[in-house]
Write a structure and sequence with these properties.
The chain is mainly α and about 190 residues long. It has 2 domains: about 50 residues, no CATH class; about 90 residues, DNA Binding (I), subunit A, CATH 1.10.30. The strands form 2 sheets. A two-stranded antiparallel ribbon has the order 1-2. It has a two-stranded antiparallel ribbon with strand order 3-4.
């Protein structure tokens, strides 16, 4: 009896040894881009995948659910650098994963950021302003990267995005000193 699975497994094994595309069995594989497929097949697969993801994101946007995972719990994401609302809808977990990827190098450490938020009791590290993840909360480096601050959880804190923009590349003492000068000058 013919076993298709076994046949395909053997066929693919042979094609891999010969460095021929396992999808079309016509062209040599693209050594720089793939282990098993030629450039033509890779480009076709990429286009199909891109079209599918585009349609999926449009559908999720219409349904007003998280664009990444499809969760019903939605939060608006602020663009930290400009303060304008981005049109991307994201659930809190996907938002934390994205921030984790940016600051800790992997999305798998998102729970560390969530725990840090809870440890700070949902308040800005510098001002005590109540923070909401996905709205006014942003991650700040206590010792900025420009002054050799590290991307580790001990050097990160949650801050109001406006305060984070004001602090920029200052360390904590310089930032507080600058705030005192502003208050003193305006006699507040």
């Amino acid at each position: 009896m013919f076993n298709q699975r076994k046949y395909l497994k053997e066929r693919n094994k042979t094609l891999k040894k010969l460095n021929i595309c396992i999808q079309c069995a016509k062209y040599p594989i693209s050594i720089n881009r793939s282990k098993y497929r030629c450039d033509n097949c890779l480009n076709k697969a990429k286009k199909i995948n891109t079209d599918y993801l585009k349609k999926l994101r449009q559908q999720r946007r219409r349904e007003k659910v998280c664009l990444n995972c499809g969760s019903l719990y939605v939060c608006n994401k602020f663009n930290i650098h400009t303060g304008r609302k981005n049109k991307e809808l994201m659930c809190e977990i996907c938002y934390l994963k994205k921030i984790s990827k940016q600051h800790l190098g992997t999305s798998k450490k998102w729970q560390l950021l969530e725990n840090l938020f809870k440890k700070q009791k949902g308040k800005c590290y510098y001002t005590g302003i109540k923070l909401t993840i996905g709205q006014n909360a942003s991650i700040d480096h206590k010792i900025c990267k420009a002054k050799n601050g590290q991307n580790n959880i001990e050097n990160l804190c949650w801050a109001d995005w406006k305060i984070n923009l004001m602090k920029r590349d200052l360390d904590i003492q310089e930032f507080f000193k600058l705030c005192k000068i502003v208050v003193f000058y305006n006699k507040l």
